[in-house]
Amino acid sequence: MDLDVVNMFVIAGGTLAIPILAFVASFLLWPSALIRIYYWYWRRTLGMQVRYVYHEDYQFCYSFRGRPGHKPSILMLHGFSAHKDMWLSVVKFLPKNLHLVCVDMPGHEGTTRSSLDDLSIDGQVKRIHQFVECLKLNKKPFHLVGTSMGGHVAGVYAAYYPSDICSLSLVCPAGLQYSTDNQFVQRLKELQEPEDVQKIPLIPSTPEEMSEMLQLCSYVRFKVPQQILQGLVDVRIPHNNFYRKLFLEIVSEKSRYCLHQNMDKIKVPTLIIWGKQDQVLDVSGADILAKSINNCQVELLENCGHSVVMERPRKTAKLITDFLAFVHNTDNNKKLD
């Protein structure tokens, strides 16, 4: 073989080896950095842009795609200890002609974290309203979506600010009062001592605890490599003290049943999505909401746990899109009549 050709292959091999070795090193040594790069790449691929907006000295971080148009904008609120990027798996399957906004909830990711902030459900609802006002998102009624803690906030928001929204989607929301406690709630009630706050199952500090949390939240058993589990923990550990403070606030007497206490004030068309195998918040919550909210559609998903957004993103996107189309068309027909 010609020496120049041999040199070409050596150079080419070396050029390819560098990024491959860099990827392997990142995977083994800095998995948390790889996870951040992954979200950045996914946002870029889906056309989601990150922006910041301020209410006085309070910063909100959000991502968006599209512009307000004749169809309602969609505001999406994530769950406890998550961030705006958790919605990317659903965004992938939503029509590109919709105006989407995903915000980091108070104290999460790029949104201000302050020791003076009111982290109760009422406090978070007020913060989200400030965000909406900053973006002038309520110039025209929008569709509000929330999951878990974000669903709790979304439901109460709909009760407090009915003129802001045209419709609502609640994905396995927290904030309801059940006649009997499920295993997860019973386990939480057993954590009575001050040091037990370190044992909250939704706040993992080791790869093993992260694996247990994923199993608790998902019906689908994801096989996650140890390095990725470590990366997920590394990303969360600096925030765990905040998560503990937030958790104690949202399960306090003031906040725990805030949605239950306000659900009869929700007057807009509402879509309820719940995984039948949810081990965190019992699926019977869907029936509780359906009995109190007029014009309510319930969708129960088979073989799905609490992490509906991650387990069934395509189905979630389709349900929201179909629901929006139905509500929007119905409103237009009423105007024509």
The percent range for helix content is 40-55%
What is the succession of H and E elements?
HHEEEHEHEHEHHHHHEHEHH
What would you give as the CATH superfamily? Answer: Alpha/Beta hydrolase fold, catalytic domain
Give me the CATH fold name. Answer: Rossmann fold
Radius of gyration: 22 Å
Overall number of domains:
1
Domain AB hydrolase-1: 72-313
Enzyme class: hydrolase
Transmembrane segments: 6-39
Catalytic activity: 1-dodecanoylglycerol + H2O = dodecanoate + glycerol + H(+); Hydrolyzes glycerol monoesters of long-chain fatty acids
Structure in words:
By secondary structure, the chain is α/β, with parallel strands linked by helices. It has one domain: 3-Layer(aba) Sandwich (Rossmann fold). It is built from 13 helices and 8 strands. The chain has helices at 3-29, 31-46, 88-91, 121-135, 149-160, 183-189, 207-217, 226-236, 240-250, 258-262, 285-292, 308-311, 313-336; strands at 49-55, 58-65, 74-77, 100-103, 142-147, 165-171, 270-275, 296-301. Strands 1-2-4-3-5-6-7-8 form an 8-stranded mixed β-sheet, sandwiched between helices. Strand 1 and strand 2 (58-65) form a beta hairpin. The chain is globular, with a radius of gyration of 22 Å. Mean pLDDT is 89; it is low at 1-29. Residues 72-313 form the AB hydrolase-1 domain. Keywords: Endosome, Hydrolase, Lipid metabolism, Lysosome, Membrane, Mitochondrion, Signal-anchor, Transmembrane, Transmembrane helix. It comes from Cavia porcellus (Guinea pig).
